[in-house]
Design goal:
With about 200 residues, the protein is α/β, with parallel strands linked by helices. It contains 6 helices and 8 strands; from the N terminus they run βαβααβββββαβαα. The strands form 2 sheets. The protein has a 4-stranded mixed sheet with strand order 1-2-4-3. Strands 5-6-7-8 form a 4-stranded mixed sheet, with no helix packed on it. A hairpin with a 2-residue loop joins strand 3 and strand 4 (about 85-95). The radius of gyration is 17 Å and the shape is globular.
């Protein structure tokens, strides 16, 4: 049986516009809903921030990933990566399908960029299959990204069967295009946008 699954990946920058000029999480929620995705992969999601909650009147009472999920995505997983006095943030996956399990793996390479691999297993009943989904946000510097991709490849080779469906999405910060090449050469993965449109997406 074939099934079309709509995906969205979005670095929400903790709910703020570029340069942190405005808090726009409500606008982001509306925009995400218009895509009508089955799975939403989010980066830089605040689980909690005590100072922002005091400063902004429209700050949600729920963690940002729960606020964005609302009544559309009944299932979600959150990987806490960066922890500080005011709160914490990380990656999240919103899903219309239930999680069989999920785990967050620390792949930080320096104390300034706290990163993780959020690896979930989702039961997609129409397919009668468990689909592995991975959300991540890689370093700005290539040396750190390459270390993290090696950690990702090792995780996949150890934890995911070769014939299991696998989706990886996130903010790769892939200025050079080397991340996609490594994933293709080592795991045989296909970059969906490039396969569909003949070129990589104009994004990092």
């Amino acid at each position: 049986m074939s099934l079309s699954i709509r995906l969205l990946s979005y670095n929400i920058h903790k709910g703020f516009s570029p340069n942190n000029q405005r808090f726009v999480l409500n606008e982001m929620r509306l925009a995400i809903r218009t895509v009508n995705a089955d799975l939403v992969f989010l980066q830089e999601v605040l689980g909690h921030h005590s100072q922002h909650a005091k400063k902004f009147q429209d700050w949600p009472r729920l963690p940002q990933f729960e606020f964005l999920a609302d009544t559309i995505w009944s299932h979600y997983a959150y990987g806490k990566n960066a922890v500080y006095d005011e709160g914490h943030h990380g990656n999240a996956i919103l899903s219309k399908y239930p999680f069989a399990s999920w785990e967050n793996i620390d792949i930080s390479t320096n104390r300034f960029e706290k990163r993780g691999i959020l690896h979930g297993v989702i039961d997609i009943l129409p397919l009668q299959a468990k689909v592995h989904v991975i959300c991540l946000h890689l370093n700005l510097l290539e040396s750190g990204r390459l270390m993290q991709i090696r950690s990702l490849i090792e995780r996949i080779q150890k934890a995911i069967p070769n014939d299991a469906p696998l989706i990886i999405a996130g903010d790769f910060n892939d200025w050079t295009g080397n991340v996609g090449t490594l994933l293709k050469n080592n795991l045989g993965l296909v970059e969906v946008f490039e396969a569909t449109h003949g070129r990589p997406a104009r994004t990092y």
